[in-house]
Amino acid sequence: MTIYEQPLREFTEQVFKAIGCSETHARLAADVLLSADLRGIDSHGVARLSGYVRLWEQHRINATPDIRVVHETPTTATVDGDRGLGLVVAPYAMEVALEKARQYGSGWVAIRNSNHFGIAAYHALRAVAEDMIGYAMTNASPLVAPTFSSERMLGTNPMCYAFPAGQHPPVVVDMATAAAANGKLEVAERAGKPIPEGWVLGAAGEPTTDPTALKQGGVLLPLGSDYAHGSHKGFGLSATVDILSGVLSGANYGPWVPPFVAFLQPAPDEPGLGIGHFVGAMRVDGFRPVEDFKRHMDQWIGRFKEARRIDAQQQVVIPGEPEDLAVAERRINGIPLAAAVWTDLQQLGERFGIEGL
User: Fold this and answer.
1) Is there a contact between 133 and 163 (Cβ–Cβ < 8 Å)?
2) Is the confidence at residue 187, as pLDDT, over 90?
3) How crowded is residue 191: how many other Cβ atoms within 10 Å of its Cβ?
4) From the CB of residue 81, how many other CB atoms can be counted at a distance below 10 Å?
5) Alpha-carbon dihedral of residues 169, 301, 164, 121, nearest 10 degrees?
């Protein structure tokens, strides 16, 4: 099933309004999800919509949060999201970071008491629009085992850097610190396809290509998959995200991060509040003139695109390039939805009396 952006956007806004979000928050939350679908990150777009609704039903998401700064210095702050949608809380925090960067050159904000915030690139790219370097990360439900372990201790814990360029699109390094994001398993399961080895271990610690293994008690592996291939580096990156997002902000961390899926309950004796994020912005002109930087970014991109190829048919891919191509294509031809996602949306429409899809 393929659907065009505007009707899907309007439907998503209506669902968020139906659970009590203000028009402003509903529009913003829908924009974050649609940005994922447009960029080809199907696991984090409207496929997540029914998950937010289920968490709201369980009173684990507050549709009318009082988002506020609870601690700050001229260049740093901590924001409490009041259990709001991370899709709304993170943009609020990024605006705090941007305002500090406008005044002082950089701004860094830790966020607690939030929920799943969509794709990290959405938040980091808000800085690029103002000729700044953007940074965004979040901890997540514990699904990943650290190196030499088979216990779920960390989330997929994505991080994103976004750099403005001149003639070229921004360079956007947006990645999970696990071997694969959980959403990729969901996409594979919906499509009835196996996953590559090195993504997951089964419940007994065995390698598997079964996309349902995680649901059956398995674990995701860190980036690198095993020690011989650098999983300790993925573990280190994930730990960095968890500490900045959770320990620094006062959110939960490690095995205590609340699960996104509604059928799993938060761990007892939580040490913090909700899910944590960390965002930042740095003014390019705090280091060198913006136009000089952009000119050299264009040269950097151009030279890497010209790098000698292993396969003449396969170009070097700049971080963020596949997503830019997806946006251009999907704005014209529409957004493909898996059958299971289409069914979820239809059920949401029936429940809330929303038409238009």
Assistant:
1) yes
2) no
3) 12
4) 30
5) 70
Strand, coil or helix: 2: strand
Whether pLDDT at 263 is above 70: no
Nearest Cα residue to 257 out of 274, 278, 244: 274
Shortest CA distance to 279 belongs to which of 65, 52, 95, 59? 95
Among residues 218, 167, 163, 160, the alpha carbon closest in space to that of 189 is found at 218
Q: Which long-range contacts (CB under 8 A, 24 or more apart) does 344-352 make?
A: 344/47, 344/49, 344/50, 345/11, 345/46, 345/49, 345/50, 347/50, 348/15, 348/49, 348/50, 348/53, 349/11, 352/14, 352/15, 352/18
C-alpha–C-alpha distance, residues 69 and 321, integer Å: 35
Q: What is the pLDDT of residue 62?
A: 98
Strand partners, 112: 80
Report the Cα 106 to chain-centroid distance in Å. Answer: 22
CA–CA gap between residue 162 and residue 122 (Å, rounded):
10
pLDDT given at position 64: 98
Give the percent of the chain with pLDDT over 90.
Answer: 90
Longest CA span, the chain: 56
The DSSP secondary structure of 181-248, one letter per residue, reads -HHHHHHHHHHT-PPPTTSEE-TTS-EE--TTTTTTT-EEPBTTSSGGGTHHHHHHHHHHHHIIIIIT
Task: Give the pTM.
Answer: 0.95
For residue 356, name the pLDDT band (cuts at 50, 70, 90). confident
CA neighbor of 164 nearest in space, from 127, 136, 135: 127
Helix (H) or strand (E) holding 121: helix 120-128
Strand partners, 68: 80
State both tokens at 170: 């921004």
Query: Beta strands 76-80 and 2-3: pairing type?
Result: unpaired
Nearest in space to 258 (alpha carbons), one of 271, 244, 240, 241: 271
Distance CA 155, CA 144 (A): 6
